[in-house]
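Researcher: Here's a chain I'd like modeled. Treat it as a single chain, no partners, no ligands.
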Amino acid sequence: MNPHPYLRAYLAGIFLPTLVLPLLLVAFIILRLVLHVPVPIERAMVFPMAMVPSIFGLWNMLYLASHRTTGAPIGFHGAILPLLMMPAGGLVASGLGVLTFGTRGVTWFQDFQVPYALIGTLLLAGLAAYYLIWKYIVGSLNRMVGIA
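Model: Modeled as a single isolated chain. Structure tokens:
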């Protein structure tokens, strides 16, 4: 009997983003307050700090629930997540006025222009990074807590 497997899947999923996001917040605070970067970075940090750990945990719970029927490897399952998170983040950022869509790219904070080709490259890099993170880190955490 495996007591509370979904709770353990959630905790294994939130482990990495809960460790990494505060470090990113410190880096952004240093950029904003020490180096005086004139971009309101804290507005862009609200969504990831609030949502990413929960999304990772829920996504790991979904993997646990669907793995027996789909048989998909955990790395592939994790690589799907950026395909959902990037559009959702873009819609939230657009709704908050942080991101504006143009003909050649997007504009962050009415200041930084990012071409769509770079966004596509970042999406591919994100897919690769998430595949590796989920295959090696989340997968080993799942084995550690006894749900893999």
